[in-house]
Amino acid sequence: MQRITSLFIALLVLSCIFWLLELLFAANPAQPRLRNRLGLGTDLIYWFMTPLFARAIARFGVGVILVLVYRQTPTELQAMLASRDTLLARQGLPLQALEMVVLGDFIGYWLHRSFHGRGLWPFHAVHHSSVHLDWLSSVRLHPVNDWLTRWVQASVLVVLGFSPLAVAAYVPFLSFYALLLHANVSWDFGPLRTVLASPRFHRWHHTSEAEGLNRNFAGFLPVFDILFGTWYLPRDVLPQHFGLDNETMPEGFFAQMLYPFRRVSASSQHKV
Predict the structure, then answer these.
(1) Which domain holds residue 196?
(2) I want to staple 189 with a disulfide (CB 3.0 to 4.6 A). Which of 57, 60, 198, 234 is the partner?
(3) pTM, full prediction
């Protein structure tokens, strides 16, 4: 009950903050302030379900991966990680945080690109299904998408030697920044537009318009899109259309949970 109360308070506080930001700095002023009931209700379910259930499974999955990597029991693994003395873990937490932002975003960039590939796209399509992009739409994420991303990122960072405490602090930072990236605001961060991912940068990733498709995969550092040829951020143009291209996603939460499996099954039947 305490966890639900905390999520409800956070929802109210963030709603007030982003309502004001999206009112003053709207990228698309014509976008509805409140989406249709079904779409809004679906995202509210994600808001509560993901932290309560999906993230618990994500943490469990990381634990299983580390048990398999180190071939120790959970109790032995916990003791080993708590006392492990690595070069990276000896660094101060601020320096570890900076290094994890760079390495974690590099990993996240390629994971994100892989979810735009044919095999994993049905799971990621759920996230791209919002036709009205705002801060709350960021939580519309299929659990499989969330689990695979977190399993790989967290496991790699821990295995490399970063402090588990620093890794645990890195995840909430990414979660909050994702809310900002999806907000209906026009910011591109001016002189830092090629340094930090901005809401305008990410709106081009979510657009269904042809010039923005498969662009801007980075979650924090656009340098990876620049290096690998996927950066796109025109100065005086904003995308106007969002959602899926030539694909229809059901709006209900449970229908979206089943969508990737039904889509894969239908594709298999078609191939036969």
Answers:
(1) 2-271
(2) 198
(3) 0.90
